[in-house]
Amino acid sequence: MQPAVKPQAGLKAVKSPAGPKAGTQNHRTVDRVTQILEEVVYHPGMTFAELVRALGAAKSSVHGFIRGLVAKGWLYEDQHRFYLGPAVYGLTLASGHIRAGLVTDSDLSSLHDESRLAVFLGVQAGDHLIYIAEAGSDYAAGFEARSNIRRTLLSTAGGKALLAARPQFEREAYLRRRSRDEAEWVDRFIGEFEGINKTRIATNQNQTGTRFGLATTVRNRLGDAVASITLVGPTAEVQPRLAKLSKMLIKHVDAWSQRSVAPREAI
Q1: What are all long-range contacts of 174-183, with beta carbons under 8 Å and residues at least 24 apart?
Q2: What is the dihedral of CA 139, 142, 147, 153, to 10 degrees?
Q3: Is the CB of residue 158 less than 8 Å from the CB of residue 229?
Q4: Looking at the domain assignment, is residue 262 inside a domain?
Q5: What is the pLDDT of residue 256?
Q6: Residue 197 and residue 267: Cα distance in Å, rounded?
Q7: Are 105 and 163 in the same domain?
Q8: Which whole number is the average pLDDT over 136-150?
Q9: Is pTM, for the whole model, over 0.70?
């Protein structure tokens, strides 16, 4: 029998995990959040009361979890019923899979074929824009979309388009919440706001000036802006075609807006 090894001076002996605690352990908060998401996946459109009954938990506890999930875009609320939110599809995009709700893959591909630019479908989740589907082969823009799922509305053409479409009180509340570091973006958006409303087109250029995007909103039959569509490409190629691309983009999007939106879809 080998002698027991004594710990070095100043160090405590560490016991190897044994028994049932050595495996995975549940965490009450994680369990609650997971169950909420699973219930909504399998029973889309659940009400708050139905979720409380399904979880068997206190209303105050469930309410806090749901508010947090809605705020971060993991859940979507429509007429007091809950569905999977756009953040879920943002992760799907980041993993290399395409998921589109209101707009089909065929729609995005058709717009890409005509414009010869990368096409991104985005939705608002809280104070951020999340891309949930794409078509095209602009490597730089596609890599950025997968690497940075959430981005402030003011830093993208799609985000600006969605923000401009918001009711005045929502838009001004969002702008007031911006930090000092975003003051330049706020000023730029305020200066562009009238033009966005007039033309229905928002634009943005990346920090290096190499990529240029133009975007508009997708509206449902009630006229509500539910998503944004952005065309992205090299600045030298996009800017000279801006007027033509703007007309093309609005033509495609207006055709999509005549469709009804299934309640389960996040957008």
Answers
A1: 174/127, 177/127, 178/152, 178/154, 182/152, 182/154
A2: 130
A3: yes
A4: no
A5: 81
A6: 22
A7: yes
A8: 63
A9: no
